Amino acid sequence: MAKKVKKVTAIDPAEKARIKAETMSKKAAAKAEKAKARETVKAEKAKAMETVKAEKAAASAEAKARAEHDKARAVAKLTKTLAPVAREINERIEKAAGLDGKADDHRLAAALRLEEARKACEAGKVDFKAWCTANVTQGYEAIRKLVKIGAAPDPKLALADMRAGNKAANKKHRDTKKVGSRDTKLIGADPKKVVQTGLNAMKPAEQLAAITERATALGMKIVSATPPGPIAPVAPVKPENKTPENEIAELKALFENLVATAKMTFLNWAVAEVGGTLTLPDFSVKSMNSGDLSADDAPEEDTLGPFRKAKKSA
Fold first, then answer.
1. Which letter, b or e, does each residue of 190-224 get, where b requires 16 or more Cβ atoms within 10 Å of its Cβ?
2. What are the residues whose beta carbons fall under 8 Å from the beta carbon of 301, sequence distance 6 or more?
3. Which of 30, 29, 125, 17 is CA-nearest to residue 68?
């Protein structure tokens, strides 16, 4: 039996190329379709996310607006409730700045009312600092100190402690500022000019005390060469302040500002006016030799001679 031979038909190259191109075109179309589908899904997801985000933002804005509205209502309500308190606080602070003798009482009352207002703001969830800025005339730093006093177990004692602390702090600040300013000015300055400037800034009595102290440290004594001058008249005391104590205090102040010779002139006159005798130590050589006085007690010159007076007849 003869073997059957399969017949192979030859394919035209052009047809083969057409089929291949068609196949590739179908694959590319399918791939593009899938990509398009993916982009569509992605866009839909992004749109959904934007929608959710916008809804959340709107809800948040609405909640915020509602909260601000509620807060504004609470502030308005509390402001109305605390209006009398704020008015009293401002009045007390204004009176505390005066000189009516009751400044501490007004300051203490303001401190207690401020603490009351602070508690009310805390309970009403209102910013106390913002309330103070809108309703109290005092700066917040001063308010904070007053609130601390009002919240203390013993507000009156706390106020006294604060005043004492402020006084000490102010003195320290002044001293530090004075020393710092002086140190800056002294750099490279002529010592003589510095001393002269310092003395010129003092009162006469302070100048004499400073010079005497320095002379004593150097083993020297001050001898006044200023002749006695006229006694300055005492300014009359106002009728409403005319008391023996005030008059004596004024005389003492005037006496302290006199130079040594003028003081002696005044003393001689005053003693003579009451019929007395001003007895002064005897610095003669005879007295020192007798042992009553030592040589160290005697002045370098007898500056008291012109002022030794005998007893005035009555």
1. eeeeeeeeeeeeeeeeeebeeeeeeeeeeeeebee
2. 223
3. 125
pLDDT for res 296: 46
Is 241 found in the same domain as 179? no
What are the pLDDT digits (tens) for 120-165?
999 988 899 999 999 999 899 999 999 999 999 998 898 888 878 7
Tell me the angle at which helices 204-217 and 191-200 cross, rounded to the nearest 10 degrees.
140
Residue 305 has pLDDT above 60, yes or no: no
User: How high is the pLDDT of residue 10?
Assistant: 65
Q: Is the pTM of this model over 0.85?
A: no
Domain count, the chain: 3
| Mean pLDDT calculated for residue range 229-237 | 53
Task: Place 90 in a pLDDT band, splitting at 50, 70 and 90.
Answer: very high
Structure tokens at 290: 């007798």
**Residue the block writes with tokens 């004596």:** 248
Distance CA 26, CA 20 (A): 10
> Mean pLDDT in the chain?
77
Does 270 fall in a domain? yes
Decide: helix, strand or coil at residue 239: helix
Of 262, 269, 265, 267, which is closest to residue 312 (Cα–Cα)? 269
Q: Tell me: do 241 and 303 sit in the same domain.
A: yes
Q: How far apart are CA 55 and CA 314, in angstroms?
A: 112
Residue 252 falls within a domain, yes or no?
yes
Pair (275, 310) in one structural domain: yes
161, 241: one domain: no
Q: Rounded to whole angstroms, how far apart are CA atoms 22 and 230?
A: 137
Residue 273 belongs to domain spanning = 233-314
Task: Confirm whether 177 is domain-assigned.
Answer: yes
Query: Looking at the domain assignment, is residue 8 inside a domain?
Result: no
Neighbours of 123 (CB within 10 A): 9
